[in-house]
Design brief:
By secondary structure, this protein is an alpha+beta fold. It has 3 domains: about 5-175, GAF domain (Beta-Lactamase, 2-Layer Sandwich); about 190-285, Beta-Lactamase (2-Layer Sandwich); about 295-350, Winged helix-like DNA-binding domain superfamily/Winged helix DNA-binding domain (Arc Repressor Mutant, subunit A). The protein is built from 13 helices and 10 strands. Strands 2-1-5-4-3 form a 5-stranded antiparallel sheet, with helices on both faces. A 5-stranded antiparallel sheet has the order 7-6-10-9-8, sandwiched between helices. α10 (about 300-310) crosses α12 (about 325-340). It starts with a helix and ends with a helix.
Length: about 350
């Protein structure tokens, strides 16, 4: 176990990494290297999330059961024990053995899958602030390793706020266009069975999945983000979580996508019906909503932005919000400062991706 000095030094290094972070993928890779120095683990899954729905996407994972990925994701979403949606900024870390009173069989995920792979304990962290949920991390230890202890839990909890802020800032960075937009999906559809195995897909699906989660050389892309949205549909149907089964995520060069899952109508019972996952460019209202959260806009500032994106001028926005035009201008100045733009035109271009 690392000594107190080692914990403190690691926290300092995490602060430096987060302070200079620009890209969420690179940040997560570097964080995993640093965390491993003081908190040993045998496997991991580090996902970004839609800040509003908390649905995961764009995973970085190294797990022994990768061939059972649909099953892993389905069970993860259907397991209430230590679910990331039950954690918050005041208590961002939960340990499997603590959460089950020393009997991990109370966890559906452990009972039906992780036990087969000799996983002894799991440390789960959420990265959440008042603007939304930006990601979650699961660290796994094999059953021949020590369980996660209080010192490791405290360390993970103490870096959570710093990591959350960095992840949110990295998402804000994606709203700066860095080149021509890639060809836009219109929409892509994947068809999954109730166990989340792929039954079919539209021709464009392969192309966009390769960008979402680049596969190893020579391998087909794994639709992990689609699995997550479909698994959220199952969790909602089972009453485990109320969030809708959709997630918004950045593809590349400022392009944001929305993934949604829904059952296909058939003569079979609803829970036996196949699941369609659609992937399409995020509409302006959904894109600007994430933009507002990523840049930490207040509720009033976000409403001003929303009304501007709908085409309203200062006088119209003021009338609809029952504010003076001077107050709207003050809110707009605050939005400019937070988003580092100097005009309405530049603000709307970034928020809407135009």
């Amino acid at each position: 176990m690392a000594g107190t000095t080692a914990w403190d030094r690691s926290r300092e290094r995490v602060g430096v990494l987060c302070g200079s972070a620009v890209d969420a993928r690179d940040l997560r890779l570097r964080l995993l290297e640093e965390i491993r120095r003081v908190v040993g683990f045998d496997a991991h899954a580090f996902l970004l999330t839609d800040p509003e729905t908390s649905v995961g996407s764009l995973p970085l994972a190294d797990v022994p059961c990768v061939r059972e990925l649909p099953r892993l994701i389905r069970l993860k979403y259907l397991t209430p024990v230590n679910r990331w949606t039950a954690l918050d900024a005041s208590a961002p870390v939960a340990l499997l053995h603590e959460g089950t009173g020393g009997d991990p069989s109370h966890s559906l995920l452990w009972r039906e899958l992780l036990s087969d792979y000799r996983i002894g304990d799991v440390a789960s962290s959420v990265f959440r602030d008042r603007f939304g949920c930006w990601g979650f991390l699961d660290l796994w230890r094999s059953d021949d390793a020590p369980r996660f202890g209080p010192a490791e839990s405290r360390y993970l909890a103490r870096i959570a706020g710093t990591v959350t802020e960095a992840l949110r800032r990295c998402q804000a960075n994606t709203f700066v266009a860095r080149g021509p937009h890639p060809r836009r999906p219109g929409p892509v559809v994947l068809l999954l069975d109730p166990e989340l195995h792929v039954l079919g897909q539209t021709p464009q699906a392969h192309e966009y999945l390769r960008v979402l989660v680049p596969p190893d050389h020579g391998r087909a892309p794994i639709p992990a983000s689609a699995y997550n949205v479909a698994a959220q549909l199952l969790a909602r149907e089972a009453g485990v979580d109320r969030h809708p089964p959709h997630a918004r995520m950045h593809l590349s060069e400022g392009l944001w996508l929305t993934l949604r899952a829904a059952r296909i109508r058939s003569t079979r019972p609803s829970q036996e019906s196949d699941i369609a996952v659609t992937i399409e460019e995020a509409p302006p209202t959904e894109r600007s909503a994430v933009f507002a959260r990523a840049f930490g806009l207040s509720a009033r500032e976000a409403e001003v932005l929303h009304r501007l994106t709908a085409g309203g001028g200062t006088r119209e926005v003021a009338g609809r919000m029952f504010l003076s035009e001077y107050t709207v201008q003050d809110h707009l100045k605050a939005v400019f400062a937070k988003t580092a733009v100097h005009s309405r035109r530049a603000l709307l271009a970034r928020a809407l991706g135009t």
